[in-house]
Amino acid sequence: MSGEELVPFRVAVPDAVLDDLADRLARTRWPDQIPGSGWDYGTDTAYLRELVAYWAEGYDWRAAEARLNALPQFVTEVDGQRIHFFHVRSPEPHAVPLVLTHGWPGSVVEFLDVMAPLADPRAHGGDPADAFHVVVPSLPGYGFSGPTRETGWDAARIADAWSVLMTRLGYERFGAQGGDWGAIVTQLLARRHATRLIGMHLNMVTVRRPVGDDAPLDEADQAGVDAMVRFRETEMGYLQIQATKPQSLGVGLNDSPAGLAAWIIEKFRTWSDSDGDVERSFTRDQLLTNVMVYWVTGTVNSANRLYYEFRRGGGMRGPAPRAGDPRVPTGCAVYPHEIFRPPRRWCEAAFDLRQFTEMPRGGHFAAMEEPAIFADDVRSFFRLVR
Fold it and tell me: Active-site residue numbers?
């Protein structure tokens, strides 16, 4: 692969990798746990033992691999970095190009249940006028994009790479959607490539209280702000580690599949609308397929490194919006168990807000947790701007 070539791709994990995984799972060295402590200190060992037993004896990676390969995938090189992506073209002639960006500790697996319905709504009981040409890249350093090989791959550089990718696919103007890192990359696309975006849709909205806004919040908005404060106080240890010393953590996560699952699945439980039962929101197969994308590619260390690069690069790098700059039409979907739930008026101050939806259920991994209502909200927003 070289230059601008788009190379068809299929997932094909060697048997030796799966044999090594089975051996490591069988030899897991389990930690102690204080009786009755459950998930208080992190991932509950009793639950993880059950999950690892299923992983070793019941989970079928080859079935997951076949599902991934049922959708068209490609790799290309942008700015010296391999980029893997799904490209699901719609049969509808007036479909709008749409790039969907995942976050951490998710992967392209988050979008498996929404790609086909978004690309071909006619075949899924929807209106063909809502169709998209769907592009789902793996973030640089994540999954089948492979590890990053040099410093500097922060969210701003990823946004620029997405702009190049969409040009390479023949899309001059397009929509963008994202949550978690995907929301950051999408906002940077809007900041750095505003004239190319017809609109952006966010399912994790990170905005500050507007300067000079001292008006009291209603009860629901105050509850959302209080939840954000609690999250910063009690749930951000992972971010501090990954933004400062990711390499030290990476040794353990890249060596132990049980450790990798513990680190990732704890977030799926805490950040979802699960009421403490992670399998109320996701199946075991969904959870393990997402973990497997990190394991079989050996990319957990480079994925975690994105936090370091973002901090080192100064965060939301790029020109600050100025009076007269184009503002990209924006839709915000606020899920009740999302980790950030800002009030509508904060979003109105930050964006050219065209749609603000308080979703009835769901959490941080919206497309995976609630694919039907996620897709409906994306369609309804882009109906306003396409």
Answer: 180, 307, 364
